[in-house]
UniProtKB/TrEMBL annotation:
Residues 656-665 have a biased composition (Low complexity). It comes from the Eukaryota. GO terms for biological process: intracellular distribution of mitochondria; mitochondrion organization. GO terms for molecular function: mRNA binding. Residues 674-688 have a biased composition (Polar residues). It comes from Pygocentrus nattereri (Red-bellied piranha). mRNA-binding protein involved in proper cytoplasmic distribution of mitochondria. Specifically binds mRNAs of nuclear-encoded mitochondrial proteins in the cytoplasm and regulates transport or translation of these transcripts close to mitochondria, playing a role in mitochondrial biogenesis. This is Clustered mitochondria protein homolog. Keywords: Cytoplasm, RNA-binding. It is found in: Cytoplasm; Cytoplasmic granule.
Length: 1179
């Protein structure tokens, strides 16, 4: 029998029989914290509009283009290393030779080699050639690994690689937020518990060595949430030491006479046996020399041993190294590859254990060098970032293969983000010289590594009329959103700058690629489009108008006229602040895109202008700290769609007979060119829409100070003003009611604003003390005592007269140390009122906890993530009254908060949505095939670690689970969990969801113990992130209760199911169908215990809800009635048995009581219902 799979509506509570199509969301289907993610290039409506734009691309001439298989069909070659047998190797024609070498450097057999080339029939392959371009390379070809001569560059690469191998299982880099390392703890909950998922275990077989009871801090009702379990530690996860010291020697560089002998570099090595050796790195390899710490003797030691690899040399001189390195490689190989490879964007953790600082020659060289890691391996050393970013956009994109290579190149240049982040930190740390050193420090600008850096302050009162410093700070992010929007449009011939916004130590830094020639010309000579004096003088350009035509359609920007200073009309297709500059490279660039999206009039009081009544009734417009508040792109798309739906449904519209009912909103805009009649207007249609077409566009210069419009545009200007008012009302009346106030988010955002200002007044030597004092004021229950400066020992021993001479430094320290708890919370309340117009119901952290139900640990996590603070992972006693909760030693680091553009693979995204559409139609196999193809395209573009790859794996895991292939479901979902941990964070809301899915699949596959570990982990993470009082916790507790019921841990199951019932009743209402389901699950557990009185009580509640909601005749009501009869019968049998026992009579004629455990199939069915999956047979 075939099945059609749909998902129950997780939000609808009226009718259980009312269900909607199962939807595999690209963006996460559930959110622990409501609101769109700020680091998504697309979310919700914006992503769908991007798909519409993709379908309309000029290169989509062939509708079946995506169905053609790209030229990436893999084939097998043989690769032979020196002294070993050939091994088979699966390759893709699109891969480069360099990528094959990187894979070989990761394999256990060849990982110790870095300086080699690949040869085919004696010909050396070009490292940057694609395999499809290699003549003679085909199925079964033999590639030989040939050792090459070393150079200083190759020696450094070799040292870095050996260092990475030795540190491959060491989480230090992940804690320090470097080298693309990040944490993953999935192995801790699945290691040694992996079973053959294809076989169903006998009941109890898996659980005999596992206690089903979770730790006390995970049980429902526990008020204290511990921090230490966030990063579980075991002996098996500890790294294996192979060397004590590997460092560059002080004898470097080699003298001239030794260079003539091939010496490149000298190294110092201390083995685990405490043997001190001096190693020479030469052009031929590595060998031990006779030098000591104070005596230079570069001659080879006796016996003389030359090894091409440093690992081979160390294995010969140190038995412990050889033994431990082999064990390290085996341990490394046993880990999943996703745990080892670097993430494309660095993930910073807000907690870390106390770490020992070990010697690291690579880290030391990176610190002392002016280059950035691998940059000294690039010809020319300093990369021209702008040329790299723009040239990748110019790559061809006519065929699918072309677009794959183009998307791949664009994404690979995203290491611009890493470089810009490091440069911004160097600027704030004072390690970069400004290009205008004589000016005020707040006005200084910097150039470093071909990147331009500016600070987020109001330079020369540029933003004075828009809000001053508040506007200057917000402008950077708003401009980045504009750059993101134009980048997604991806119009030919129009270029935007690479842009990264970094918040670090209270400063906001904008990093941008440099337009060629802009630094050699004045701004007046550079700008050929737009204005540099706030709209007084406006330039236009026919070329720019043509280039901006396509983006203006997709971003809904109206082409309009403005007046120049001489009262001549100038045509624009953007805001006047948008500047067009033609670089020396001939490219047309656009800059200053902060007015890309329409203004939000709800936060822009204007003299003589009134908002619609629904806004005025709620107190709008309200004064905001700056005048740059704008509407999100997602809202504009929703506003457009809403207007199209209303207008299309209105009888006032003359519909085209050729219009398709299945057309999208943009298709409607393209096919219908009818206007709404002016007669008998209806209130359901916005007034600004009554005389317009379906294609809504906004004039970005409306209400811009200093901008004037021609008289002939007066009517259009009035309509544009009304359109902005309609959009503002749509936000208030249609979008905001769908959201809820996230009190924790609001408090921590206000606190972040204050922390930024607080940190600006702190000198670097007092960072730890000041941050710990701020956290004490924010989270501790200690009385209002001013902070005490805890100076280091060196400073504390200075004489008092020397302390008096410090004057200004002491004053700066006193300023931050004088902050008190009550003062901070008063300021937080004031900030919430001024910035968000919300009156906080709490005046202290105690009230936030007791009155509002928040957790200190959650507040600590949120403020740490938002500000970049990293704290020591230990248990903090927040209720301590007489000593500070946080000390200087608890503050380990301050990381940057990085905002940037994330390039997307358009073809993969399109295939992903096509696959979802097939799944919604019930075509699971076709949908699975399309999503698998999308996964291949995503992996080809991004690599393995990316959230889009995670999305595909999660969807494929769900499909395989529905199809009953639990082995494949587990395999895909395990990878989804790993990627989510590595890319998003170990306690990110998406990671929690992935853990819950994996727990479900494990139980269905017969791994009940592993399922419980995973679900317990998910519950703990939810406790840390949002606390127990959350609607998602009800679903998770229901799942845990069902699994515990399945293994007959009834008492534990009742605790979780009772918690689920309470939360469901609170958030869904006591009469909701979900509450009825919770009562039924409790009744089943009580039945298994033999407590029929309680079972009847809960099942009666279920029956009453069904009868009231769907009536007596509904099958669910009848099912509950039958179950009530069954329970009553069982209760009667039990009572008769008890009566016979009391009378000491024979019970031979009494029907035996049946107390059986629920079947695994029933538990899985109930888990599916809780998850939202319903299987309906097709007839």
């Amino acid at each position: 029998m075939s099945y059609y799979i749909i998902q129950a509506n997780v939000h609808t509570t009226e009718l259980l029989s009312v269900i909607i199509s199962y939807s595999l969301y690209v963006i996460f289907p559930y959110h622990l914290i409501q609101g769109p993610s700020t680091d998504n290039a697309f979310s919700g409506q914006a992503e769908l509009s991007e798909l519409d734009r993709y379908r309309a691309k000029e290169h989509q001439d062939d509708p079946a283009a995506l169905e053609d298989t790209p030229e990436d069909t893999g084939f097998t070659v043989k690769i032979q290393a020196p002294g070993s047998e050939p091994t088979d190797f699966q390759v893709s024609p699109l891969a480069m030779v360099q990528e094959i070498k990187q894979v070989l450097m990761d394999r256990e057999e060849t990982c110790h080699r870095t300086c080699f080339s690949l040869q085919l029939d004696g010909n050396t392959l070009d490292n940057f050639a694609h395999l499809r371009s290699v003549a003679g390379l085909q199925e079964g070809s033999l590639l030989r690994i040939v050792e090459d001569s070393y150079t200083i560059r190759e020696v450094r690469i070799h040292l870095r690689h050996i260092r990475d191998l030795l540190k491959s299982l060491d989480p230090t880099d992940a804690y320090n937020g470097v080298e693309g390392s990040s944490l993953s703890f999935l192995r801790f909950f699945t290691e040694e518990h992996t079973e053959d998922s294809g076989k169903v275990k006998k009941k109890g077989e898996e659980l005999k060595h596992f206690s089903c009871s979770p730790p006390e801090y995970i049980l429902p009702g526990t008020k204290e949430c511990f921090l230490a379990p966030l990063q579980p530690q075991t002996e098996k996860l500890k790294p294996t030491e192979c060397l004590k010291v590997l460092a560059t020697s002080s004898w470097n560089p080699p003298p001239g006479n030794r260079k003539m002998h091939g010496d490149l570099m000298y190294l110092n090595v201390v083995t685990m046996e405490d043997r001190h050796c001096s190693v020479t790195a030469s052009t031929r390899g590595f060998y031990i020399n006779q030098s000591t710490t104070y005596s230079f003797n570069p001659k080879p030691a006796s016996p003389s041993v030359l090894s091409h690899s440093l690992v081979e040399l160390l294995s010969q001189i140190s038995p412990v190294f050889k033994k431990n390195f082999i064990a390290l490689l085996k341990k490394r190989t046993s880990t999943h590859p996703f745990e080892r490879i670097a993430t494309p964007f660095q993930v910073f953790g807000w907690t870390a254990p106390a770490l020992d600082h070990a010697m690291d020659c690579v880290r030391a060289e990176d610190t002392s060098s002016s280059h950035l890691g691998y940059e000294d391996h690039v010809p020319g050393q300093i990369r021209d970032w702008n040329e790299e970013l723009q040239s990748t956009r110019e790559l061809p994109r006519k065929t699918l293969t072309d677009r794959l290579l183009r998307d791949r190149a664009i994404f690979k240049v995203s290491d611009f983000v890493t470089t810009a982040t490091r440069g911004a930190m160097a600027v704030i740390d004072g390690n970069v010289m400004p290009i205008n050193p004589s000016e005020d420090p707040r006005n200084q600008m910097f150039i470093w590594n071909s990147i331009f850096f500016s600070l987020g302050f109001d330079v020369r009162e540029h933003y004075q009329d828009l809000g001053g410093e508040a506007a200057a700070h917000a402008a950077s992010t708003i401009d980045l959103n504009g750059v993101r929007a134009y980048s997604l449009v991806d119009a030919d011939g129009l270029y935007v700058l690479g842009t990264v916004v970094v918040d670090y130590r209270g400063f906001r830094v904008t990093a941008q690629s440099i337009v060629p020639g802009i630094l050699e010309r004045g701004q007046e000579q550079s700008v050929v489009y737009g204005s540099i004096d706030f709209g007084k003088t406006v330039n236009s350009n026919e070329k720019y108008l043509k280039l901006l035509d396509k983006p203006s359609k997709q971003l809904r920007v109206q082409r309009h006229l403005v007046l120049n200073k001489d009262d001549t009309a100038v045509e624009l297709c953007s805001s006047v602040e948008c500047k067009g500059i033609v670089g020396n490279d001939g490219r047309h660039y656009i800059l200053d895109l902060l007015f890309t999206f329409p203004l939000d009039l709800n936060f822009l009081p204007l003299e003589g202008e009134e908002l619609k009544p629904e806004c005025q009734q709620l107190g709008f417009p309200r004064q905001h700290p700056h005048r740059l508040a704008c509407l999100r792109q997602e809202l504009i798309e929703a506003f457009q769609e809403d207007n199209c739906i209303k207008a299309a449904a209105s009888p006032l519209v003359n519909h085209s007979p050729n219009a398709s009912p299945n057309s999208s909103s943009q298709d409607i805009g393209g096919t219908l060119d009818t206007a709404i009649q002016n007669t008998s207007p209806r209130e359901s249609i916005p007034s600004s829409f009554r005389n317009s077409s379906f294609d809504i566009r906004f004039n970005p210069n409306i209400f811009s100070p200093g901008v004037r419009f021609p008289k002939e545009s007066c009517k259009d200007i009035q309509e544009q003003k009304q359109l902005l008012k309609d959009a503002a009302a749509f936000l208030i009346s249609s979008q905001i009611p769908a959201l809820r106030i996230a009190l924790c988010e609001l408090i921590t955002r206000c606190t972040k604003h204050l922390f930024r200002t607080y940190l600006l007044a702190v000198e670097p030597s007092a960072l730890s003390a000041s941050v710990s004092h701020f956290l004490n004021c924010f989270l501790s229950s200690s009385p209002d005592l001013p902070g005490t400066q805890q100076m280091d020992r060196l400073a504390s021993r200075r004489r008092s007269r020397r302390r008096r001479s410090r004057g200004s430094v002491g004053g700066a320290v006193t300023a931050w140390a004088s902050l008190t708890t009550s003062e901070l919370w008063r300021t937080v309340q004031a900030e919430a009122l001024e910035y968000y117009h919300y009156c906080l119901p709490c005046e202290s952290v105690e009230q936030a906890v007791d009155k509002c139900g928040l957790q200190r640990i959650t507040l600590l996590r949120e403020i740490s993530i938002k500000t970049g603070i990293q704290i020591l992972i230990r248990e903090y006693h927040f209720d301590a009254k007489h000593k500070p909760v946080f000390t200087e030693e608890d503050v380990l680091n301050i990381f940057p908060i990085v905002k940037h553009i994330s390039p997307r693979a358009s073809d993969g995204l399109y295939l992903l949505h096509c696959g979802q559409a097939k799944v919604q139609q019930g075509c699971l196999k076709e949908g699975c095939e399309l999503i698998s193809q999308a996964l291949g395209l995503f992996t080809n573009v991004y690599g393995a670690l990316h959230r889009d790859v995670c999305t595909c794996l999660r969807l494929l895991g769900r499909i395989y689970y529905i199809l009953g292939d639990y082995s494949e479901a587990l395999s895909h979902q395990q990878r989804a969990v790993l990627i989510s941990e590595r890319v998003l964070g170990i306690e990110h809301p998406n990671t929690i969801q992935e853990y819950k899915h994996l727990g479900l699949y494990c139980f269905a596959g017969g791994q009940a113990a592993t399922a419980l570990r995973l679900l317990y982990r998910a519950r703990y993470l939810m406790l840390v992130v949002c606390g127990e009082d959350h609607p998602e916790m009800a679903l998770l507790d229901s799942k845990i209760g069902l699994v515990l019921h399945g293994v007959m841990e009834c008492d534990l199951a009742l605790r979780f199911l009772e918690s689920a019932l309470a939360l469901t009743s609170k958030y869904q209402g006591p009469g909701s169908l979900k509450v009825a389901q919770s009562h039924h699950l409790l009744a089943k557990v009580y039945e298994s215990k033999g407590d029929f009185r309680s079972a009847l009580r809960h099942e009666k509640e279920r029956y009453m809800i069904y009868r009231n909601q769907v009536g007596e005749a509904h099958e669910k009501t009848r099912e509950s009635s039958e179950y009530l009869k069954h329970l009553t019968n069982q209760a009667v049998i039990l009572q008769r048995t008890m009566n016979m026992i009391y009378k000491n009579s024979s019970g031979a004629n009494i029907t035996p009581l049946k107390l059986t455990a629920p079947s695994r199939l029933w538990i899985v069915e109930q888990l599916n219902l809780v998850t939202g999956i319903v299987l309906i047979p097709l007839r």
